[in-house]
UniProtKB/TrEMBL annotation:
Binds 1 potassium ion per subunit. The lineage of its organism: Bacteria, Bacillati, Actinomycetota, Coriobacteriia, Coriobacteriales. (6S)-NADPHX binds at residues 55-59, 129-135, 158, 261, 332, 389, 459. Belongs to the NnrD/CARKD family. Belongs to the NnrE/AIBP family. This is Bifunctional NAD(P)H-hydrate repair enzyme.
Amino acid sequence: MKPILNIEEVTRLEDIIEREGTSKAELMEHAGELLASVVEAEHPSRVLVLTGFGNNGGDGWVAADILQQKDIHVDVVSPVDPSEIPSALARHVARRTAGRDVNVVVGPSRDELMELGEQADVIVDAILGTGFHGAPRPPFSIWIPAVNELSSFVVSADVPSGLNAQTGVVEDCCIRADKTLTMLAPKIGLYSGDGPEYVGDIQVGELYDKLDEVIGDVDHAAEIVQAGDLIDYITGLPASIDKYSRGSVLVVAGSASYPGAAMMAAKAAARAGAGYVAVAAPDACANLIRMALPSVPVHAIPSDSRGAFGAAARSIVCELAKKYDCVLCGPGMTTSAGCMQVVTGLLELDVPLVLDADALNCLSRIAIDGIEKTPDMYRREAPLIMTPHYRELSRLVGEEDEVYDLGTAIDAAQKILWAGGSDNMVIVCKGPTTAVVGVERVLIPTSGPASLATAGSGDVLAGIISGTIATLHAEVDVWELALSYAVSIHSYTGFAAAAEYGEKSVIATDLIDYIGEAMQLVENEALKDLGALDSEGE
Ligand SMILES: NC(=O)C1=CN([C@@H]2O[C@H](COP(=O)(O)OP(=O)(O)OC[C@H]3O[C@@H](n4cnc5c(N)ncnc54)[C@H](OP(=O)(O)O)[C@@H]3O)[C@@H](O)[C@H]2O)[C@@H](O)CC1
Ligand SMILES: Nc1ncnc2c1ncn2[C@@H]1O[C@H](COP(=O)(O)OP(=O)(O)O)[C@@H](O)[C@H]1O
Ligand SMILES: [K+]
């Protein structure tokens, strides 16, 4: 796992490294060296380096100097004469570089900039880094859209200019990078908000050879899951296994209005490896589900007048639920009074429980006085997994619109977890980047494509999660990793389905059919990461 930092922690880390004897000036030299090596790997004959007023520009000036010494033609664009750069560190390296052979262009017009950009094979974006705030001001507000019109390969230093490195917000314009070389550790904004749209491939420039020894001295906003971290949760299928010992799931879901959600979740749970999946659904839709899923037993539970779980549902569902390795509750269920009772009842059982969709909306209503005052959630022994998207998470913490990006989602999930301190509770915060948040750690598994933003995609994820939990039989050391495995499978179903149907044409039912292939892809990536497979998969 690789840590992701908040900006204030990056500053703390720089200070710690400085106390250990490596100055910020030295870090800048290393940043420039690494930036130059990333550019060189593209084999350019001509490079354009765009610099700003601060130390991000300093990284660019150092890289320009090194690239020029390698017989690459380098043009450096600066908003002011190098001697007028306000940051002392950046001014020093800018004056040094300008004194050599690079071509320095101060304050070019848009046309001049476009001409330089058209000639360059690679453009280095060292305009704005972690010191950027608000919206880019001129001349950067002119440079950035101009660069985005060019076809040259763009490498951003630390963070694409225009992206807030903490929030991931782009207010006006932002460099669209092919690659971002982020210094010391990735900043959370690269993964949050608009970040994923602009960063391209993220590469980490570690800058300091003893980084491993000091990175633990600062708080981590989250950790990126590497493929190899998942290996313990990728299990085989022994010949002697039977349908029950493979793992069983009860899907408590559906209503007359939304039978499809129950079908998708149940089918996904089975495809994810559970040997026995059953559905408990209101009798108003049970026959529909039976017809759609011949391999799945369906328990018809008395409905209310609107075709949702009725008053008798709680005791019947809870009696059934005790027999399963995992219970998934919520998809398409509605928030009727009967549904609320089902959720309350399931919380009291000692069985691994996944609450998704309407089960979370029921929970928000049950927790009307504040989630921290809902002891049933925290008193449980068995794992409780919640899978909210941003709106559901906002409702759970009782504030409309409180959650709108990765950072606010992690904050809200931690508020819920820390209120009760249950280490059996994990919140999977779904969004363009999904965070798996537990009491001890926050993990970021591989994200899927935007094709996953389609109705029912979350039901499929809930099915994959419950199927995965059932097959693990609660033999889990790190729940956040086990759930990251399930989220990664869902992400890869998105890639596989997009390759088959086209990015915009994927629908949720397609994802289910790619679960097997996605599991194989995740396994291959894990084995490659651990060196057990080469890049050809041999
Ligand atoms: N972490 C590390 O250890 C290392 C970090 N390093 C590098 O340093 C970078 C951070 O440097 P930094 O702090 O100097 O900030 P940086 O991003 O260059 O920008 C500051 C300038 O931008 C200006 N500015 C702000 N907003 C603006 C706007 N909207 N529109 C226009 N201008 C705006 C701001 O002006 P002000 O707000 O002061 O008016 C100020 O002049 C970091 O990203 C990494 O690349 C490496 O050298 C190696 C070691
Ligand atoms: N832009 C995106 N990029 C990648 N994944 C996304 C994006 N938008 C949504 N997703 C993923 O798609 C799923 C949507 O889930 P959800 O909103 O619960 O859908 P539904 O309620 O329709 O089933 C989540 O797993 C989420 O992480
Ligand atoms: K930059």
